[in-house]
Write a structure and sequence with these properties.
α3 links the parallel β7 and β8. The chain folds into two domains: 175 residues, 3-Layer(aba) Sandwich (Rossmann fold), CATH 3.40.50.720; 202 residues, NAD(P)-binding Rossmann-like Domain (Rossmann fold, 3-Layer(aba) Sandwich). The protein is an alpha/beta fold. α5 packs across α7 and α8 packs across α9. The protein is elongated. The chain has an eight-stranded mixed beta sheet with strand order 3-2-1-4-7-8-9-10, with helices on both faces. It has a five-stranded parallel beta sheet with strand order 12-11-13-14-15. Strands 5-6 form a two-stranded antiparallel sheet. Bound molecules: nicotinamide-adenine-dinucleotide.
Length: 401
């Protein structure tokens, strides 16, 4: 949660560990390097009372789903209470968390009013401006990508736009309402989810036909209007989560989503499909199968392990008593253990029956056919989910989505 203190900025977080690291110029997400903290007037705090001098609040807390894929609004509600307690007349509150249309005004605004005793629109203003950060991406940043902004009236829209224009070089897009801004963000990720689901379904079909999906995409991609999406595991805290917010709200309004829900089902099932492929192969060639998983983060070149779908694959392999080693050059060992109960392997073996390359981390791209051959048995399978070693694996069996 960020606040603007006129010329000063503060970040409040209930995670003491994170605040302590930030004070030492360490970003646990590895997105910001130590030098980038230099000459920045920002103070990090866990103490919400210290925000009382602020007059512009930005709330960017997690919006996750529970085990039944139902939106968990508790962080948003709690953060709203925290802000409400220090809210004054004339203040602004802008939400950045991804959520369904209506959430800011129907779920958060009443909390702000109740715990501040103030009236929205009259005493304070609210707005919504979705985050568009793409982890690991140094090109499409907060500064370089147009930011959608919205407010609860014309005046707040203009004030909020002006604040963001101070930091976003690409400029802002003024959405006509808070709901439109909320919908715009959820649609960005839902569209990606749907397109990936189509590629995943094609992969299930083409596998039965003995066709490599990446070959198909390469060929079809020569047409000007073909959209080059790829199959893969859809993990992380955005694409695999946000569509559930939309389908939840749609259901509350009496509409059961078909297309979006089907895409979620297909994408969520891919981890088990990968497991079935591996299990079928390794049980055929070994009595005591051993598998190496390369990559546990949800995408390449990031340390974020939230909602890692390869963990579902690992769990499935373990139920068949298959020994699984997991390694990742980016993931933090303690976080992987804390979140999933898995120990990261420090020393890889030389007799694997299969290797799963989950994500194309930069160091993996330097590996060769010989490297894979040197740590696997003769009949081993190299399962390259993102197709980066297509046509490069000669000495072992090769499979990609
Ligand atoms: N990071 C991204 O790449 C990205 C991109 C687009 C959208 N988003 C959206 O932005 C939101 C935040 O995501 P994130 O990745 O920055 O999450 P994050 O988990 O990295 O950070 C959120 C922080 O909020 C803190 N927090 C939780 N409840 C709090 C409270 N009541 N008061 C103060 N702090 C609290 C947590 O301790 C955590 O450190 C989510 O809705 C997400 O979907 C994130």
């Amino acid at each position: 949660m960020y606040t603007e203190l006129l010329d000063k900025k503060a970040k409040l977080d209930i995670n003491a560990k994170r605040i302590n690291l930030l004070k030492q110029r360490i970003d646990s997400n590895k997105e910001i390097c130590a030098e980038e903290f230099d000459n920045k007037e920002i103070f990090f705090t866990e103490d919400s009372a210290s925000l009382s001098a602020a007059n512009f609040f930005i709330i960017a807390v997690p919006t996750e789903v529970d085990k039944h894929n139902v939106p968990d609004l508790r962080p948003l509600i709690n953060a709203s209470k925290t802000v409400a307690k220090v809210l004054k007349k004339g203040d602004y509150v802008v939400y950045e968390s991804t959520t369904y249309p209506g959430c800011t005004e129907e779920d958060c605004l009443p909390v702000l009013e109740k715990f501040s005793g103030l009236i929205a629109g009259k005493d304070f203003k609210i707005g919504y401006s979705p985050e568009r950060i793409n982890p690991g991406d140094k090109k499409n940043t907060l500064r370089s990508v147009i930011k959608v902004v919205s407010g609860n009236d014309d005046e707040s829209l203009e004030e909020i736009a002006k604040i963001y224009e101070l930091v976003v070089d690409a400029g802002v897009h003024r959405a006509p309402s808070i709901k439109v801004a909320e919908a715009s963000k959820i649609v960005e990720n839902t569209q990606r989810d749907l397109n990936i689901a189509l590629m995943n379904e094609l992969s299930l079909i083409f596998d039965r036909m003995g066709i490599n999906t990446y070959d198909v995409i390469e060929a079809a991609g020569t047409k000007w209007n073909f959209l080059k999406f790829h199959p893969g595991l859809v993990g992380g805290h955005c694409i695999g989560v946000d569509p559930y917010y939309l389908t939840h709200k749609a259901a509350a309004l009496g509409y059961e989503s078909k297309v979006i829900s089907s895409s979620r089902y297909i994408n969520d099932d891919m981890a088990k499909y990968v497991a079935r492929k591996i299990i079928t192969h390794v049980l055929r060639i070994s009595n005591e199968p051993k598998v190496l998983v390369k990559g546990v983060t949800f995408k390449e070149n990031v340390s974020d392990i939230r909602n890692s779908k390869i963990v579902d694959t690992v769990k499935e392999l373990l139920t068949f008593n298959i020994k699984v080693d997991v390694e990742d050059p980016y993931a933090a060992e303690d976080e992987v253990f804390e979140e999933y109960g898995l120990h990261l392997t420090k020393q890889v073996a030389d007799d694997y029956d299969a290797i799963i390359i989950t994500v194309p981390h930069a160091p993996y791209l330097l590996l060769t056919d010989e490297n894979f051959a040197s740590i696997t048995k003769k009949d081993a399978l190299i399962a390259d989910l993102k197709g980066v070693f297509k046509n490069k694996i000669i000495n072992r069996k090769y499979w990609s989505l």
